[in-house]
Amino acid sequence: MMQSTRIHFLIMFTAVLLPSLACTAQDTPLRSWNDTTTKQAIISFVEKVTREGSPDFVPVAERVAVFDNDGTLWSEQPMYFQAIFIFDRIKALAPQHPEWKTQEPFASVLKGDVKSAIAGGDKALIEMAMATHAGMTTEEFKGIVSDWIATAKHPKTGRLYTEMVFQPMLELLAYLRANEFKTFIVSGGGIEFMRPWAERVYGVPPEQVIGSSIKTKFEIRDGNPVLVRLPELNFIDDKAGKPVGINQHIGRRPIAAFGNSDGDLQMLQWTAAGKGPRFCLLVHHTDADREWKYDRSSHIGKLDEALEQAQRNKWTVVNMQHDWKVIHPAEKN
Amino acid sequence: MMQSTRIHFLIMFTAVLLPSLACTAQDTPLRSWNDTTTKQAIISFVEKVTREGSPDFVPVAERVAVFDNDGTLWSEQPMYFQAIFIFDRIKALAPQHPEWKTQEPFASVLKGDVKSAIAGGDKALIEMAMATHAGMTTEEFKGIVSDWIATAKHPKTGRLYTEMVFQPMLELLAYLRANEFKTFIVSGGGIEFMRPWAERVYGVPPEQVIGSSIKTKFEIRDGNPVLVRLPELNFIDDKAGKPVGINQHIGRRPIAAFGNSDGDLQMLQWTAAGKGPRFCLLVHHTDADREWKYDRSSHIGKLDEALEQAQRNKWTVVNMQHDWKVIHPAEKN
User: Closest residue of A to B214, CA-based?
Assistant: First the structure.
């Protein structure tokens, strides 16, 4: 009897203790970050702005952190994932557009010749974006994005695109939110391309996603109010557009900004120029083995002037190869 | 000794009990609402969407409520308060613009002839808005608005404009937030005209304020990054623009919408057309003694088609005279 009670007690004790240990392990912030000066810089900033009575204390309402998406929260090679979505949509819509067989840039996409398709530069890209992103209601577009993101696979890794997010950045988002930061996405990508999955994948709700957009129009169709997506640019949330988008949507200056390319430079400058403690960070893609290695001369995610500015202004630069234990979540297992 | 202990106990008891009573009284929702079917409709909606296990239960993330500002959260007579701000700014800026003495609509404003000033319609209003809202940085404009809102007085009541808010609506905002709703302002007024004081007065932070806007441009001035306000319309957040603005900023459909005029009709239609429980409410200005009485034929806050639709769709209509015990906060005392 005594023995049995003792075993019972041990089982009880283990049952109570184990989940709490598991919980503690999970609560350790930034587990996938190596213990480098980068990780220390993040923790030191968060601790000083959240410590009541500290001269650097920032009230909860002002704890706004902004994150670029492509190359900062998920990979962006061999091309922006939204560009792959556009090409997939062109292929899916081709039967309804027989004229695309001979009309550039669509003809090249249908032949699988991406290089020729994008040779037309911004004009070609915008034409393809409009042909695939406009002409339906917002609800319909949400369904199209949701279907694609649930099934499409990355050409190199064969993984879902939502599995190509950066595990250390997911932990950083969670760590900031645990410290009562409000986390926003501020991306050059399409606002409605990110919203259908950003809450599930990043924990960022639709109202905290800022991005590029096309115009929409309110209509009553068969007695049902809809918003129709028009083939007309509304806003480009890139470079000098990022502080504009931040002001438009958030209406106050972030105290922390996270990017990876020259497209994020003005967002970091705008953030850094506020009064009081500020934190600016660039993700430098330095890991050819586990992800990609590129910076100053890359067409995608070019990091040149922003890297200069980071050095000059002592912004934090993540060296992916050295600072990150794990890149994508699958490596955890 | 016994007596003293008893008295001590009574003091202790009173000291413990009184604050808790005070607290309870303050926590009673919608105190300034009479106990009419309007108040009951609000409470019944909130209770059914927040009751776990109820077929009408709505998860916290989806509890989005949108509020018009002019005529819904504060008064709007004898003209929109932002129009008075514009006239005050024209007077303040007149010494720097000698040409305004003879140039309409400015000349009429400077003569105190508001009727002639606004006779030029939208074109004149936009011209005056641009002359007073553009040409400075966002930080400078915030300072101008903050100074005005802290000092300017309403021409009829002599009160600060922030004292012309509706006490019952402040309680409604608080009641919804206590039930884990996220409350947004969706106003035809200027987004940057509301943000400097909306958090203090309504408890609505800048990132939850949606409104009309002009374009801004990022610049580095003397090494300092600024956003400059340009004399160019960016977005009109009124009528069919309201669902567009809601989608742009929030990215999901509200479950509750509160307005007072035909300018809010599309916002209410968009809200009502979603699946699941919805709540739409119009504030009908029926109290000539305590506030103003106007609807179908008013130039400001015209309520005509939306009132028809409210009757047809069984939306809730506030009869200010009957439903509200108190209109402005000062009447509480």
Answer: A248
